[in-house]
Design goal:
The protein is an alpha/beta fold and 219 residues long. The protein has four helices and eleven strands; from the N terminus they run βαββαβαβββββαββ.
Length: 219
């Protein structure tokens, strides 16, 4: 089964739905996500029982368990430039089978792929992505499936919601139909088949970078 999982780093990840997948015990998953979370959080929860067979993503650098399984040949990885990954998902939701991009031309990314020339420049053909299931996290939603995302959580979630046979959304707040301003609806309910209210939940910071407090310059 192929599953798209929204989020960027630890921001906007469907953590409760990931836990449900872990508890189901399902195996041999192909996961499409920007990154595989961190050890024991996010998609990292699926690693101890080796539930992930293949990862299609952009970055795996913060998850030691994933790196160990990859180096041991236990997980197949398909790397993508981040923008290419986002566009492959968007194209899948739009019904576009493939597209051409200059990103990756002349690198290992281009190996085995169709390269064509347009207006004197070379472009690499990338195929779109589609999943059996998309799990996404939204700030607010209504029973009709309309979703509103907030700040950085509006990353891969909206495009993934359009690119799967079944989309399940977890929302921090479930409101009555009509309470979300139509101009603020990012994902229309037609793309969402299931919705669950989970509350604010735990929101971790993947990397906290701070600097020393400066002395008062008015002295």
């Amino acid at each position: 089964m192929t599953v798209m999982s929204g989020g960027f780093g630890l921001c906007g990840i469907p953590s409760m739905l990931i836990e449900a997948i872990r508890e189901s015990g399902v195996q041999d998953l192909t996961i499409i996500s920007n990154n595989p979370g961190i050890d024991n959080f996010g998609l990292g929860l699926l690693l101890p029982k080796r539930q992930i067979r293949k990862m299609i993503g952009s970055y795996i650098g913060e998850n030691a368990t994933f790196a160990k399984q990859y180096l041991a040949g236990e997980i197949e990885v398909e790397f993508n430039p981040q923008g290419t990954l986002a566009e492959r998902i968007r194209a899948g939701g739009a019904g576009i089978p493939a597209f051409f991009t200059r990103t990756g031309v002349g690198t290992v990314i281009a190996e085995g792929k169709d390269v064509r020339e347009f207006d004197g420049a070379k472009y690499l053909m990338e195929k779109s992505l589609h999943a059996d299931l998309a799990i996404v996290h939204a700030w607010r939603g209504d029973p009709e499936g309309n979703l509103q995302f907030r700040m950085t959580a509006r990353n891969f979630n909206p495009v993934m919601a359009t690119a799967a046979t079944v989309t399940v959304a977890e929302v921090e707040e479930l409101v009555a139909p009509g309470e979300i301003d139509p101009d603020h609806i990012i994902t229309p309910g037609i793309f969402v088949q299931r919705i669950i209210e989970v509350g604010p939940g735990e929101k971790r910071i993947e990397q906290r970078t701070v600097r020393a407090r400066q002395s008062d310059c008015r002295e």
